[in-house]
Amino acid sequence: MAIIEVKNLYKIYQESIIPVKAVNGIDISIEKGEFTAIVGPSGSGKTTFLNLVGGLDTPTEGEIFIDGTNLGELKPKQLIDYRLNNIGFVFQAYNLIPVLTALENVAFIMQLQGKKKDERNKIAKKLLEDVGIGEKINERPSKLSGGQQQRVSVARALASKPKFILADEPTANLDSKSTSDLLDMMQKMNRESQITFIFSTHDQRVMDKARRIITIDDGKVVSDIIKDK
Q: What's the whole-model pTM score?
């Protein structure tokens, strides 16, 4: 069953006399449990595509269905709530709140969902243990390495129990070992818990791990390869 279905999707920017089609007529479906890489050169439209699928931006034309829900039919407040409760995000720059500890960063998402403090702290602690940094729960981001910060970011993305996780260049600021460890951890979660991961990436190491590689260029899907399992 498709967890994401995109139909005739366009995002057009009128930045000059000639409009720029950042996303140019994409049709695609992504199934639950996929471990998919969206690849392409800089400016190809892959990050714009992720932002549209994640409800962070609105398309010029076309439809996006998440588990059957049409994002275009949601009012602004409904879209915010839907995004909070259904979509997890992992960003290249981590986007952790610097004055909060690792535990508090992960728990913050659940606070927005209205969970009680004891419950959200218990879940946050378990998630940080699951991503391999249970001993760092009381550290602030400035005391963590890049790889550790990205693990906190993954734990935070999982905290809302999302339908899928969108990861925009998650390994761009990591060294080789941190990248390998992070990808192994995500792959294990995908394999054992059927968590759907969708990456935008330039990183060959991510492409090597992915089971599906979708290439975007000039806003269009130019290839879609599913590897043998």
A: 0.90
